[in-house]
Amino acid sequence: MRYRLSCPAPATHQLRLELELERPGGDVELYLPVWTPGSYLVREFARHVEGVTAADGEGRPLPVERLDKHRFLLHAGGAAAATVRWQVYAAELTVRTSHVDATHAHVVGAGVFLAVRGREGEPHRLALELPAGWEAATALEGGPVEFTAADYDELCDSPLELGTHRLLRFEALGRPHQLAVWGRGDLDLDRLAGELARIVEHWGAFFGGLPYRRYLFVLHLAGGGRGGLEHAASASILLPATGLADPARHLDALGLFAHEYLHLWNVKRLRPATLVPYDYGREQYTRLLWWFEGATSYYEQLCLTRAGLAPAERLLRELGERLTALARTPGAAKLPVAEASLLAWVKLYRPDEDSANSGVSYYLKGELVALALDLRLRREGSSLDWLLRELWRRHVPGGVPEDGIEAVLAERLGGEAAALLGRLVHGTAPIWPDLEPGLAAIGLRLGRRAARDAEDRGGVPEPPA
Questions:
Q1: What is the pTM of this model?
Q2: Which pLDDT value is given to residue 224?
Q3: Which among 8, 61, 154, 414 is placed 20 to 30 Å from 37, CA to CA?
C-alpha cells in the first residue's frame, strides 16, 4: 500500500490523500475506521471524507461505490494498478482528531487513511508533500518525508505532527526520544524533557526494558483544553497554553504524560482479549477498562513519587481528592464500574447533566479500586506491582480474558479474590470499608470532615482553628 498526503492550502483545514494499489484485482473494499483505539467512542470519521475518486494506471476513471457510512467499493475491473483520491476536512483540535490550519497539521491515522479490506497486514508506505518550511514528526520509520508502517495498525497508531513545531531531543535508557511542541505557553520545555526522561527511566526499569526503538511525545499548547491519547511508540498531549508555571498545575501535566506513557504497556501491548485484534468498524466491548484506565491513573500518581518528581504528601492529597469525588458521585451506588467500562461507548464520552447521578467514571473508581487491591495485596506480602507484571507476563500478546485479573489475584488471595472484585468491581458497595484496614496497616487513616464550601475538593485534614 502506498499513500501520499498533502495539505496545499492548510488554512482551509483540508488534507488531500492518495492511495496507490498494485494488482487491485476486481472489486476492492475500502473503509475508514469509525473509532480510534484508546478512545472508546464511535466518532464517525467518515463524515469528514469527501470527493472519493479512482483511476487506473493510465488515468482512466474507475467507478467507486459508497456501501455505507464508512465503506466504499472500488470496481477495479482487472486494472494492473489503481489510484484512489479523497479529501478530509480536519478542524477539530483534540488528541483524538485531526487538525489542520496555517501553522500545522496534526494527523490521526484512523480518521484519514482508507484501509484496504484483506490487505491490512501488508507494509504501508507514506509519502508527504509539505508546505515550505514544514517538517514531520512521527514514530513511523523513515523520514524526512517518506515513512513505512509494518501494517495498517501501525499506520493508524502513529500520529503525524507536521509544521514548524519545536523539536526537543533527549535520550533515556539508551533510546532516542523526541518532544514535538506546537503552540506557545509558559511551560519550561527543557525542564519538561528532563522530567520525561525520568518517567521513561522509571517505567523502563519497572518492566525490564523499553518496547520500542524510539519514542515521540507530541504536545499541543492551546486554549484551555486538556487530554491525552496513547500510541505504541508515541503519545499526543493537549494542555492549556498558560498556567503551567504553577507548581501544582505543572505536576498535574506531568501526571498526564506519565499516564499516557504507561499505556505503552498497560493497554497498547497488554490489552483486553476482546480488543485483539482491533475491529475498526464497530464497538469492541470489555468490562476491564476500570483496570486499563483506572489502574493506569493510580500508577500515574505513584510514578511521580517513585521517580522523585513529586513528594509523597501530594500522592496522599490526590488520593484523598479522588475519594471525595467518588463520594460526591451518586451514580457510583447505581452502576458497577465493570458495567461503566462496558458502556464507555455511550456514557463516558457523552456526559450530560444526569451523568453523575446515573453512572461513575471507570477512571475515577478504577483508580481507587487499584488502591484497594494494592493495599490488600500488601497485607499478603505482595503488591499491585506483582499483579501488573504477572498480567504482562501471561497475557502479552494474546490479551487479558474478562476473568483474567480475578484468576491472577486468586493466586494470592484465594477465594477472597472473587468476593473482593464482586464488591468493588461488579457491585456498588462503598469502597471505604475495603480501604481502611489496608491504610491502617501502613500507618494511615481515612478521615472525613465537613466540606468548607462548594469548591472544597477534600484531600487534606481540616486546618487547626
A1: 0.97
A2: 82
A3: 8
